[in-house]
């Protein structure tokens, strides 16, 4: 008998089970460090470069299951849970061992009084108890692989719950098992249809009810393979399941409902694994607004992170973010089942000119490419479509040809065009028999092509035979109910395949050892302090970032000599460790052209600093750089992802327009250039109103050098702000005119 030396169930456990009426809904979890951080290879900052893939086979398909706190007393909450677990175990072929201190049988199965009295080593222990911590400790000696804790009352309830969850996390780590929960549910043990073929959707949710719409896709013939309700993620987290599902051959797409990420690095490593394997990850991530973020935190007890960083990080690693559960359903279903596109072109085909024009406007606005069909292709289509109708794209058939043999000819001719990768047919309402014949032709054509055929069935009823049987019965037609969801899904489909085709993991190219610049920079750091502008610029110099010619002086006479060396005209600025916004205090003087102006400026700057009680380390006499595009490049620390790099329009525009792009290191040159393309003001770099094009290559180089700083000084640098970075005309480089650095 397994663990027979450990004795019977403790009196404390007996009391806990009996006192809570066999109900597990009152208990705990932690904001602990990620479990995916044990990978052997580390980057220059000591963080993992590859995700671990937990072996979850025995979680989803165990050979033996212990149900601790099992019951068959009607009216007790644990009874329904026990019944469902027994039914699930029967479906997956697992042996069930009920555990309860006062029962000899449960639903006819032998019941064991304690964990120590289990007749065999079990793969999965389901804890139907209010406080799982002592049970986890008892399970430690049984070598159980996995446990599930349903109990609530942990980090989602506030500070005391978070402390209780921390104790649970510590117990799990000591035990060596892997835990799902707490504050989870029975979704992992749902019934999945086994009569459906094709690639499946694997589902991950932190709120069980939010996964119901995706689970219901089975009723429309779309296969689901797994459901991971992660709850508070005391141990197993969303990232673990993404990594596992990305390796499963039956999984065509991963659908996620995420309230809070446990650890940003683990999530990105998991997303990287999915991208390497070409497995799309589609996610609803709540917390876009302050209200949403508060709600998410109260429900899961996690940081949601700055949403702009979350959004950028997801795009950086190919995670497709959608807003609604309906979009999650439709996008995941399309990505799971559709074959890779043969072309980017989208053709809109309709029986109404108005419908085609309406949809085409929306699709074009969303960034889809609607190519104009060739003259030869239009002439071919006009064999079956009246000549007065437009067939350039969108294609308007006028209605009548779809009722006979011409309908299929038109569809096949469109799909044969090499510029066409997707055909979308919006049917705004049923109009039998015309719509019935059209639906059948589309379904038949989809079976005969490798290209994607999408249909939007706009009827609010949804009981029509053409919809229920013809369209939903086809494994090759992607059927939608709204224009918006179709456009979102098709854009994600084309974008995903474009992304994965060009994907190179940034972790493969991340630096493993510190650069010589790192040693120079560390000597300049002052823990817990803000550096003066002069010291911050020395930090930039250490990393090869160009700054103006300048000298730090402590007298008016020295300022005059410095101006002569720097070269007129000059800029004079107060420099001190507490100065963040010098312009507002009048501590910047520009365009100085004479010794008298230098002396006057020195006196005025020092008087203002004395009046404002601002300590100075001196006055900077700087080269004046006038012609260029003002940008900002900086580093900030995100609570989830760590150091992040930002680039945007600089000067006063950074606060007015907030036009910036963010990336999480590591990233390469391609991502740095993509960041610039995301800026609304990117055209300024191309040259406007007679200005010459800016030196974009130099700007990219600065972004990459700042990223290196973020990686190497991540634990020592709290914030870096280069503003403005003057990007000079092409071929002339970029100069950091001002800099702020705050050490941790």
UniProtKB/TrEMBL annotation:
rRNA processing as UniProt keyword: no
Molecular-function annotations in GO: ligase activity
InterPro entries found in the cross-reference section: ATP-grasp (IPR011761), ATP_grasp_subdomain_1 (IPR013815), CoA-bd (IPR003781), NAD(P)-bd_dom_sf (IPR036291), Succ_CoA_lig_flav_dom (IPR032875), Succinyl-CoA_synth-like (IPR016102)
Protein name: Acetate--CoA ligase family protein
Matches recorded under Pfam families: ATP-grasp_5, CoA_binding_2, Succ_CoA_lig
ATP-grasp domain location: 537-575
Keyword tags: ATP-binding, Ligase, Nucleotide-binding
Keyword NAD (UniProt): no
Source species, domain of life: Bacteria
């Amino acid at each position: 008998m397994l663990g027979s030396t450990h004795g019977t169930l403790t009196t404390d456990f007996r009391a806990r089970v009996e006192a809570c009426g066999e109900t597990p809904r009152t208990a705990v979890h932690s904001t602990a460090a990620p479990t995916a951080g044990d990978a052997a290879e580390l980057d220059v900052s000591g963080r993992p470069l590859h995700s671990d893939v937990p072996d979850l086979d025995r979680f989803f398909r165990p050979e033996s299951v212990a149900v601790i706190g099992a019951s068959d007393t009607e009216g007790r909450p644990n009874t329904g849970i026990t019944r469902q677990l027994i039914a699930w175990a029967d479906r997956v072929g697992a042996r069930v061992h009920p555990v309860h201190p006062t029962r000899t049988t449960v639903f006819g199965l032998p019941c064991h009084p304690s964990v120590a009295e289990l007749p065999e080593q079990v793969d999965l222990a389901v804890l139907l108890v209010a406080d799982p911590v002592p049970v986890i400790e008892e399970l430690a000696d049984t070598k159980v692989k996995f446990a599930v804790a349903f109990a609530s009352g942990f980090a989602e309830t506030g500070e005391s719950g978070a402390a209780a969850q921390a104790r649970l996390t510590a117990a799990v780590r000591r035990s060596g098992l892997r835990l799902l929960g707490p504050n989870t549910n029975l979704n992992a043990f749902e019934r999945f249809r086994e009569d459906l073929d094709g690639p499946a959707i694997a589902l991950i949710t932190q709120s069980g009810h939010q996964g119901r719409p995706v689970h219901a896709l089975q009723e429309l013939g779309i296969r689901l393979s797994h459901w991971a309700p992660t709850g508070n993620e005391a141990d197993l987290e969303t990232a673990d399941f993404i990594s596992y599902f990305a390796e499963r051959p039956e999984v065509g797409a991963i659908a996620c409902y995420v309230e809070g990420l446990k650890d940003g690095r683990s999530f990105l490593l998991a997303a990287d694994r999915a991208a390497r394997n070409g497995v799309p990850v589609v996610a609803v991530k709540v917390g876009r607004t302050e209200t949403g973020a508060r709600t998410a935190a109260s429900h899961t007890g996690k940081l949601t992170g700055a949403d702009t960083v979350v959004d950028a990080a997801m795009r950086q690693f190919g995670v497709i973010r959608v807003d609604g559960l309906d979009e999650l359903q439709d996008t995941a279903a399309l990505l799971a089942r559709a074959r890779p596109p043969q072309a980017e072109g989208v053709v809109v085909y309709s029986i109404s000119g108005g419908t085609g024009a309406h949809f085409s406007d929306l699709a074009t606005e969303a960034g889809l490419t609607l190519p104009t069909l060739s003259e030869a292709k239009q002439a071919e289509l006009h064999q079956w479509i009246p000549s007065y109708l437009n067939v350039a794209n969108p294609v308007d058939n006028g209605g009548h040809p779809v009722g006979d043999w011409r309908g299929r000819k038109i569809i096949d001719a469109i799909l044969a065009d090499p510029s066409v990768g997707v055909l979308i047919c919006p049917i705004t309402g049923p109009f039998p028999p015309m719509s019935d014949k059209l639906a059948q032709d589309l379904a038949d054509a989809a079976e005969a092509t490798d290209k994607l055929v999408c249909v939007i069935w706009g009827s609010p009823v949804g009981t029509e035979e053409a919809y229920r049987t013809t369209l939903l019965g086809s494994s090759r037609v992607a059927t939608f109910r709204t224009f918006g969801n179709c456009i979102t899904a098709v854009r994600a489909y084309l974008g995903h395949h474009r992304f994965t085709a060009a994907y190179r993991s940034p972790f493969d190219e991340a630096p493993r050892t510190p650069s010589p610049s790192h040693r120079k920079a560390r000597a300049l750091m002052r823990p817990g302090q803000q550096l003066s502008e002069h010291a911050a610029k020395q930090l930039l110099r250490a990393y090869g970032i160009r700054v103006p010619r300048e000298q730090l002086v402590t007298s008016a006479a020295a300022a005059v000599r410095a101006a002569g060396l720097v070269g007129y005209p000059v800029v004079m600025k107060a420099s001190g460790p507490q100065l963040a916004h010098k312009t507002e205090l009048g501590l910047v003087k520009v365009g100085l052209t004479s010794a008298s102006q230098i002396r006057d400026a020195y006196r005025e700057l020092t008087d203002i600093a004395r009046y404002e009680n601002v300590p100075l380390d001196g006055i900077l006499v700087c080269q004046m750089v006038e012609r260029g595009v003002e940008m900002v490049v900086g580093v900030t620390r995100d609570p989830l992802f760590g150091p992040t790099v930002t680039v945007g329009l600089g000067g006063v525009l950074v606060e007015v327009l907030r036009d910036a792009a963010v990336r999480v290191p590591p990233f390469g040159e391609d991502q740095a250039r993509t960041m610039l393309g995301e800026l609304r003001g990117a055209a300024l770099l191309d040259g406007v109103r007679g200005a010459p094009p800016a030196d974009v290559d130099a700007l990219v180089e600065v972004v990459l050098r700042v990223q290196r700083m973020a990686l190497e000084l991540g634990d020592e640098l709290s914030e870096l702000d280069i503003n403005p970075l003057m990007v000079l005309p092409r071929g002339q480089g970029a100069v950091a005119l001002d800099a702020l650095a705050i050490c941790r």
